[in-house]
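Class, study these two lines:
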Amino acid sequence: MRIDHLGVALRPRSGWEAVELGFALLRRHAGTVFGAWLLASLPLLALALLLGWALDRLWLAALLLWWLKPAFDRIPLFVLSRAVFGATPGLRETLLAQRSFGSGAILPWLLWRRLSPGRCLLLPADLLEGLSGREGRQRRSLLARGAYGHAALTLLVLIHVEAVLSLSLLGLGLMMVPIEFMGEAAQAMWETLFEAPPVWAEALLVLLYWAAVSLVEPFFVAAGFGLYLNRRTRLEAWDVELGLRRLGQRLAALGGRGLLALLLALPLLGSPGGMAMAAEEPPQDHPGPASGAGRATASGDGLQRVFGHAHADGGEAFVQTASQTYEDARLSPTETRSVWAPRKPPQRRAQGTSVSWLDGFARVIAFLLENALWLGMGVLLALLLLNYRRWLPALERLLPGAVPALPEFETLAEARGMQLPDDLPAAVRALWRQGRVRPALALFYAGSVQKLEQMLGEPLPPGATEADCLRRARRLRGHAFAPVFGQVVQLWQACAYAARSPSEAELEALLAAWPSAIETAP
């Protein structure tokens, strides 16, 4: 890896600056990244839809696409890792490289590391460095320090962006509907896509999810790559190494004479007085060996060519530059941390003080509290068992399929034309045991009214009240069904209008008399 070929400015960045660096790299090479992503993911999308359609579980296609995200993350990572060093790969090269790029290191990210929040930061370490075993664990732990939180928050933010983008694509269709039909269109869309979706609707949802993933996931990988570059810059001092390499190139460009001048100038730079004396000494007229002034002049020229400034005179500019160098925060970094501390720090116990009696008292209190908690739990369990008739029906209603669905009516008009259960007393008892008193009596009343219409051979007029039903029931005077029907109407009226529920004995008496009353009726 040639860091001198990097196409980005090397300097330590904050976490969010590193994320923005990754976004900038993706924007620069978006054509190659998104083109390779589409060409690689479209065939898998088609296969996933066919598999879901064959199994009649199209949601499996979306699950498969989500699970294989780390495998597709290799595409933007391959492009960015090459492009940042000035070797941007083409579309064909990127697709062909997916057969071997990180093939051995991607398997853990599809299995036990699939749900890791720091995937975008740690995946480049495995794919680009190729470390495994203990060395790989140590490397991932080192990279995660100081950047794992940024990677996890980036994942959280982009998950929400992905969800909002999917919903926005659905809302785009509603924008084409006139405003006066917006409510009906939204309800129809909800019923079609989510309540009882046909095959084409499920396939459409999978396509929308794939589109959102294809737009957001490359940014997630790019953000992690930016964090990875920033961590390596901090850990391996890439910026310092690059500066030293540039300095070496400048010295090499000076040649032997320039390097000799620099070495001769080093003793003079260590003594400001010597530098001043060398500067004040006039030049020699006769030829001969290089004097002190000659060495100072040569060193000044060499320093100017190497560092870009003439600091050999030790004057005001040199002192000011040296002061600025020592004040640079990167030369002596400082860190400020805020911690919580008690206002009154705990005082240390004096040596030799015995508190054994206090320890024994604390153990007694802990024993009493522990047994009181166990006793309270036992009392609570006993109360639950004694009152199971109150809470058990409510629990049964929460279990899907535990209790068969029974029709519920509030008025007689709701019961017209609806199929009532064949065993009416059993259905009424089931509702009663669930604690649904009003629906039970409404069902009993509706069934009695329908039985009355069958016996009379004529339907009741629309909007018939309880009084109308009782007047019609007088025609059955002398039959056992008439008094039973009258009692049913009374129980329903007391519950519906006076909120007064009958006793279980009263209801059981009517339910017991119901079969014989039906058999003796004409």
Q: What stands out?
A: The chain has four domains: 3-236, 241-281+293-325, 359-403, 412-520.
